Amino acid sequence: MPSRQEVSYFGAGPAPLPTSVVEAGAKAFVNYNDSGLGLGEISHRSPTANKILADAKANLSTLLDIPDNYEILFMQGGGSGEFSAVVQNLVPVWIERRRRRAEAEILKANPGTEKDQLNELVYQRLQKEVDEELKLDYLITGSWSLKASQEAAKLVGSKYVNVALDARKANDGKFGKIPTEETWSLTPTKREGGKGSAFVYFCDNETVDGVEFQSFPKSLEAQGQDEEDERLVVADMSSNFISRKVDVSKYAVIFGGAQKNIGVTGITLAIVRKDLLPPHTATPPPTLLHRLNIGGLPGPVVLDYATIAKNNSLYNTLPIFNLWIAGQVMADLVSEFGAQKVSGQEAVANKKAQLIYGALDKYPAVYQVVPDKSIRSRMNICFRVSGGDDAKEKEFIAGAEKRLLQGLKGHRSVGGMRASNYNAVPLENVQKLVQYLEDFANGQ
Ligand SMILES: Cc1ncc(COP(=O)(O)O)c(C=O)c1O
């Protein structure tokens, strides 16, 4: 039976955790801090749970330099739950902003308008605007952004979803390239002659396809102070969270499941700009949303950012053990990298990724990296063996298993190989993989 130290695991998620955290977690699950109770047994409203929550928030804020005007929410439902949550929360923001504008303009034109009549006029204008102008922009660069766009279409209707980019079109029907920004068809903002979209969505790192945005897209940068010139940017960082420096202030929402770089499954993180929540932006009344009849809005309360924020992530029962694991991983990164914060982790991630890509590129006849060089993911390294020859790929996996290099099979939808290089994958394990890549290529 292999020990933990002997196995090198490269699975795409759930993914390895630091051994120190797993060992401390095992103790905490039985008897936390000599309290006689395990972390799966205490109330999520207890002082102990509150401290774990506050520490996790503080450590995440430190690592990512999260500005004060952002809320950190711990939720459940995974990355997939957030596909719905962003729609459920940001379409109402679009409606509320327009409701405010409509109300002000109608009152300016007819100052004495009665409340009931005003509400009716506002509703009529909003209904027209929803029908004619509501757009949700999606950049589809891989399987996860595709799924997110499909969820949005399911929730509110495909007529509202603008696929601003379908990267498959530039690559023979497969993911693996991100065409240049001039080719994207984002909904134009006011200064571009349009009315803007409710939000622009992208997946920062496509886990299945090994595609990562190398930097924040220029065309999503703020264009001015005017609401109608702003692009509310949503990013799924499930598989590259806390693996590199991110300018949080460029985003409306960043979200991700914990089970790759942060912790165990069961906790989802969302970082949400405060002015998109009450009291800055009111939630439109359910009756108005019902009347506007936009798919399933308003949605379930457990995905409602305003409710989760108002209740400090404790609206319903939060899994405190899972939260503790995430908090511990973040606390360890804070103490390991000190003033470098997440940039320290970024340097390590880059180094490990370079080692693996270096070995793959050295033997182009044996290994072929799937995505284009310009957008290679540092987290999920997807490659084929001998051009995807079935027998050779099986031989590669069998040889890897013999050395206890595990979890290297690509996602079932795309096949091939995938080495996931998350934060907790030790350099030493990457070196073992690199040695195997060398040996296999040299027939050893
Ligand atoms: C980038 C990305 N987004 C979303 C998801 C879905 O996450 P979950 O399984 O937590 O719903 C995954 C899962 O692997 C993912 O990699």
Automatic annotation (TrEMBL):
GO terms for cellular component: cytoplasm. Pathway: Amino-acid biosynthesis; L-serine biosynthesis; L-serine from 3-phospho-D-glycerate: step 2/3. The keyword Phosphoprotein does not apply. InterPro entries: Aminotrans_V_dom (IPR000192), Pser_aminoTfrase (IPR022278), PyrdxlP-dep_Trfase (IPR015424), PyrdxlP-dep_Trfase_major (IPR015421), PyrdxlP-dep_Trfase_small (IPR015422). Its EC number is 2.6.1.52. It catalyses: 4-(phosphooxy)-L-threonine + 2-oxoglutarate = (R)-3-hydroxy-2-oxo-4-phosphooxybutanoate + L-glutamate; O-phospho-L-serine + 2-oxoglutarate = 3-phosphooxypyruvate + L-glutamate. GO terms for molecular function: O-phospho-L-serine:2-oxoglutarate aminotransferase activity; pyridoxal phosphate binding. It is an enzyme of class 2 (transferase). Gene3D superfamilies: Aspartate Aminotransferase, domain 1, Type I PLP-dependent aspartate aminotransferase-like (Major domain). The keyword Magnesium does not apply. One of its GO terms (biological process) is L-serine biosynthetic process. Residues 9-93, 177-433 form the Aminotransferase class V domain. Pfam families: Aminotran_5 (PF00266). Its cofactor is pyridoxal 5'-phosphate. Keywords: Amino-acid biosynthesis, Aminotransferase, Pyridoxal phosphate, Serine biosynthesis, Transferase. Belongs to the class-V pyridoxal-phosphate-dependent aminotransferase family. SerC subfamily. NCBIfam families: PRK05355.1. This is phosphoserine transaminase. It comes from Penicillium argentinense.
